[in-house]
Inverse folding.
């Protein structure tokens, strides 16, 4: 069974640009969650999608958005990039139930210059 | 509201000695609790989870954790550290209302293992 796949692995963008990150969950998993990981803040929850609907949302500005497709693949978009958006963005997939294990991708390392 | 506090940001042990990584939680619901490990340049991997069954939970690589409701703690232990255990460890609490689940993450504990 293939794991969670995130693309690209590394990105360098300029302030003001926008970026789209992709996550393909494990086959059969319907929930995808996105996290931002930085050294000072740890893992911060961005949002969760389940069956193409946003089910939970963290405390991030509207510049951060996402969507999920019918095949459960998810994309995350960040517009008007700021230097502080530099981080490791992690995607996790679960079946969507209550306390099931989350499987993580290796992340996308975004650097904003 | 749910929260997780990892009491140590850095822990350093010698190879072959016990490991203790401390985690306290706060939850309005019956929590599910997890420990994840992150090795450098690798994704997060589940070590173990507590979901209201046995309070002593055994995980991979010789790790275990004990759920203590009276102390609201879920400390991670291992009897004998190995060099390969050096990594970042995260304690996580899951609060669910039906299928609507949120994971709350601790800030992590960096474990160093000295030869």
């Amino acid at each position: 069974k293939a794991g969670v796949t995130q693309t690209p692995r590394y990105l360098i963008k300029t302030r003001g640009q926008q970026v789209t990150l992709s996550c393909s969950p494990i086959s059969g998993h319907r929930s995808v969650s996105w996290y931002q990981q930085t050294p000072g803040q740890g893992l911060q929850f961005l949002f969760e999608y389940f069956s193409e609907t946003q089910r939970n949302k963290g405390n991030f500005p509207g510049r951060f958005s996402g969507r999920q497709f019918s095949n459960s693949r998810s994309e995350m978009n960040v517009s008007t990039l700021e230097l502080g958006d530099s981080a490791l963005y992690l995607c996790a997939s679960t079946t969507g139930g209550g306390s099931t294990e989350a499987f993580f991708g290796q992340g996308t390392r975004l650097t904003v210059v | 509201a749910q929260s997780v506090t990892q009491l140590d940001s850095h822990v350093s042990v010698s190879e072959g000695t016990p490991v203790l990584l401390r985690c306290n939680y706060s939850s309005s619901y019956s929590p599910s609790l997890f420990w994840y490990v992150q090795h450098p340049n690798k994704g997060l991997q589940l070590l173990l989870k507590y979901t209201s069954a046995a309070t002593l939970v055994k995980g991979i690589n010789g790790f275990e954790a004990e759920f203590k409701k009276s102390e609201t703690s879920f400390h991670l232990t291992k009897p004998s550290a190995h060099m390969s255990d050096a990594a970042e460890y995260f304690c996580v609490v899951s609060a669910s209302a039906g299928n609507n689940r949120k994971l709350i993450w601790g800030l992590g504990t960096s474990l160093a293992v000295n030869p």
